[in-house]
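Batch job 17 of 40 flagged for manual review because the log was empty.
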Amino acid sequence: MESYQARFIFGGLLLALTACGGGGGGSDDGGNGGSGSGWAPGVFLDSETFAAHCVAPRSGVSPETGTPYPDVQGTILDENNFLRSWSDETYLWYDEITDQDPGGFNDPLAYFDELRTFATTPSGADKDKFHFTYPSDEWFQLSQSGVSAGYGAAWIILSQDIPRELVVAYTEPNSPATAPNANLARGARILGVDGVDLQHTTSSAEIDILNAGLFPAGPGEQHSFVVEDLHSGGNTREITMTSANVTSTPVQSVKTVDSPMGAVGYFLFNDHIATAEAGLIEAVEQLAADGVEELVLDIRYNGGGFLAIASQLAYMIAGDAQTAGRTFEASQFNDKHPATNPVTGQPLQPMPFFNTSRNFSVPSGQPLPALNLSRVFVLSGPNTCSASEAIMNALRGVDVEVIHIGSTTCGKPYGFYPTDNCGTTYFSIQFRGVNDKDYGDYTDGFSPENIAGGAGDLLPGCAVADDFEHALGDPLEQRLQSALRYLEDQSCPTPSALTDTGHGKVAAPLSATDGVMPRSPWRENRILQR
């Protein structure tokens, strides 16, 4: 079984998803019940009838629950029937699923791919942008600790067409990417991998080599890279890196910037994983001690994760006076469950702004620090998604002003409970989230009010392309610089003032210029705990 990976494809660098497992597909009879499965269209047994009936039952103890796996011997049909019934019970748009014979699919993952809506939004985007699976053991490790095999360099695809362009967005501390022999930094261009020209190759065999080098399957893989560092005058160098299990540092570059308007706090927040709880608390404590009067929250690369951590951060920005008794986010499930959470069985209760630690990486019940701000500057773009967007929406719901510097966010007011069955964790949209004002219809994202074309929900702020000429947190970096300027006089840079990337291109203030960050899709969601 192989987990999701970002992949090169012929004709450009596009983010594609490789499903776990292989093979599979529908029956030749078009789902008309010829498989002998006992399928009756529109008739569903309870999903618990089929849960944990597995082709390959696991043994031992689950690291997530600490209890023995519930698996018993079953069949592919059992696994498919579980997915069919579970989707009918909990999928937000269950009535838009075409009910197909589960006996006509020889791979549960291929069947799961069909158990979703194929409708689109008014902008033409997929209504359900995120429907995926993950091997359960990998999901648990990654979501809890942020550990994954790689080099500790986050890649950004700036140009999908030949000549392709791929740069480093940021690096993880103490990783192969920052070791002395590699010394990669933001803005470095990757020109080749293992002897293959990244910019121009069209060979499928060579594209496979690029994939293998950029996205190693595990630790201990050695690959070579041709690198052009920022401000190198076009000179290149070749480095070799060995992949390792890299632990993500979700909160970075915490600092206070002096401005004519007072002390301004800044930090980069990249992932809503468990370890972020401790990092966010430490960041806010540091900024509070510095007496900051404004905050610039950089979530341009934060795709989401645990929603409770987003709630904690929103509280730490706004404080008690603005959040007490208010809703951070209320979850709305499908029309079969107007008052009860179908996953937990509990009455639906809105998520508050959590003001204490939740035992992600800090023991439960400890009071959280707060900056008590009436507004926040948010640096974001198309790689900002889900739980990160929930922070923006929730603060707006309690009248904390959100100033948006960057470009249109991904647009995902939806979420799910990760559900394990037979060693695969399934992610299927189960609820939408709304703020204290019952708003959550930003399916085409949030946009700065002066963005060309007016895409998405418009917020005060400035359309500013990503700037790979400067380090994140550098006051001269275009987005941070624009936030500081807006703070002073409410002005925005004009498109002609944006000389982004430094690679012979003039950037426009559009989300299309920001590039795509290849990453596992679990990092682009809002996730609730059971």
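Reviewer: the log was empty due to a logging misconfiguration, but the result itself is present. The CA atoms of residues 375 and 529 lie 29 Å apart. Unflagging and moving on to job 18.
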